[in-house]
Amino acid sequence: MATDDLSDVVDSFADGTYTVTRRAASTYVDGRLQAPATTTLSILASVQPASGRDIQYLPEGLRSSKAFAVWTSTQLYSKVAGVNDPDQLTIDGDTYEVAGCEQWNASGAYWRALVVRLGH
Fold it and tell me: At the topology level of CATH, where does 9-117 sit?
């Protein structure tokens, strides 16, 4: 049985357009950390408060940070060692980092990411 592409439905529930900063992996040159190369893109997304269950999955140091669940038809990336630093989203003027992202449709049509606010 084929799974329908629901990305249009997810986009129709979007509550805004958000800016994503996608970063390559940080590198060291002569022992000094170099800023990663970045690209920016705009995505349609529905941003919802993170549930208590979502918060439990965060590492202890992040559990007191403000967190959101982000539903989008654009795949977001958490940290993959040696490949990339986590994507960052701007929500209401604050910067949030992707702590995890999972595909929510077998056809790959949409994702649910958990993001946490940086610096607070």
Answer: Thrombin, subunit H (2.40.10)
Question: 47's torsion region: left (phi>0), alpha (psi -120 to 50) or beta?
Answer: beta
List the chain pLDDT tens, one digit each, 120 residues: 345 666 666 666 778 899 999 988 888 899 998 888 899 999 999 999 999 898 888 877 777 788 999 999 899 998 876 678 899 999 999 999 999 888 876 666 789 999 999 876
Alpha carbons within 13 angstroms on the beta-carbon side of residue 75 total: 9
Domain ranges for the chain: 9-117
φ/ψ (deg, to 5) at 77: -120, 130
Nearest-angstrom CA–CA distance, 58 and 46: 20
